[in-house]
Amino acid sequence: MSPVEVGTATERTTPPARVRGAFGRLLASELRLVLGRRRNVVLLVGLALVPMLLGTVLLVTRDTAVGAGGPPFLDRVTGNGLFLVLAALVACLPLLLPLVVGVVAGDAVAGEAQAGTLRYLLLVPVPRTRLLAVKALGVLVFAACAVAAVALSGLVTGAAYFGVGEVTLLSGDTVSTAEGLARTAGIVAYVGLSLTGLVAVGLFFSTLTEVPVAATAATVVVAIVSGVLDALPQLSAVHGALLTHHWLDVGELLRTQVDVGVLGEGLAVQAAWAAVFGALAWSRFTAADVSC
Fold first, then answer.
1. pLDDT tens for residues 83-127?
2. Backbone angles phi, psi at 74, to 5 degrees
3. 253: number of Cβ within 10 Å
4. What is the pLDDT of residues 46-72, one digit of tens each?
5. Is 39 among the domain residues?
6. Could you tell me if residue 10 is inside a domain?
7. Domains in the chain: how many in total?
8. What residues pair up with 174 in beta bridges, in sequence order?
């Protein structure tokens, strides 16, 4: 082999040198893509409309028993606008938030493959592990924005319609407005963290197909099936490990003495789902033959 051929072979086998700031630029590009896509903006606006619609209905029917039998905290909204944040989040958790997160998570890798841009991203070259991490962070940021859209809309609408004051906890004790806001912020953070497992599930399905709709549907089905299984008392032995079982533990933050163990258990379940499906997504993505 001639010296020229040896040099050429060496260049082909030598991994590209790490460029400082490359991960940050790739993440910034991904966030612009995710948060700037018109479809995703429409999804966020749609979520923000839910508390507005809910608050308007409660305002018009405040003299009736409309809150009876509805989502938790609904009957408390007219007395304190902060509870509109909680009622809206609980109302969106079973379907709307999983659907919105599933759409973006399912599109993360499958959308690139369908559009034919995934192969070019890998030819830049970008290590597959880094690219998958950026995709995961992009979906996590969007999930946080989705929860924030519901919470901020609920806070503004609730304050405008019903005012914000001292908060009566589930135990009957009353705390200051500042503490009520802090507890509400904790609830919003817990709901956001409760979606991390679903993000990992969606990312895994997104690596299995080139059809984003299929990945989205599979992700939402997992959330729905988890909810159905959680409603069956015969399966109480496995309820604690289900993806959605701890989603409504947010009420713990409205007790006088918050049981940190309950919240920690819910977050641990999400961490386990995220670890398992994140590993599956990494294994699939790093070994897959990208030909489109």
1. 999 999 999 998 999 999 999 999 999 988 887 777 666 666 678
2. -65, -35
3. 22
4. 999 999 999 999 998 876 655 455 666
5. yes
6. no
7. 1
8. 168
Nearest to 187 by CA among 145, 247, 138, 143: 247
pTM, two decimals, is 0.87
CB atoms within 10 A of CB 233: 7
Q: Quick check: 162 and 77 in contact, CB under 8 A?
A: yes
Residue 4 covered by a domain: no
Task: Give me 116's structure tokens.
Answer: 């034919």
Whether residue 9 lies inside any domain: the answer is no
For residue 3, say if its preceding peptide bond is cis, omega within 30 degrees of 0.
Answer: no
Give the CA-trace dihedral at 146, 149, 154, 155, to 10 degrees: 130
The answer to whether the CB of 108 falls within 8 A of the CB of 138 is yes
pLDDT digits (tens, 9 = 90+) for 171-203: 888 999 999 999 999 999 999 999 999 999 999
Q: Write out the two tokens for 80.
A: 């304190």
CA 270 distance to own-chain centroid: 11
Structural domain harbouring 220? 22-287
CA atoms of 198 and 193, how far apart (whole Å): 10
- One-letter-per-residue 3-state SS of the chain: CCHHHHHHHHHHHCCCCCCCCHHHHHHHHHHHHHHHCHHHHHHHHHHHHHHHHHHHHHHHCCCCCCCCCCCCCHHHHHHCCHHHHHHHHHHHCCCHHHHHHHHHHHHHHHHHHHHCCHHHHHCCCCCHHHHHHHHHHHHHHHHHHHHHHHHHHHHHHHHHHHCCCCEECCCCCEECHHHHHHHHHHHHHHHHHCCHHHHHHHHHHHHHCCCHHHHHHHHHHHHHHHHHHHCCHHHHHHHCCCCCCCHHHHHHHHCCCCCHHHHHHHHHHHHHHHHHHHHHHHHHHHHCCCCC
Cα–Cα distance between 263 and 265 in angstroms, integer?
5
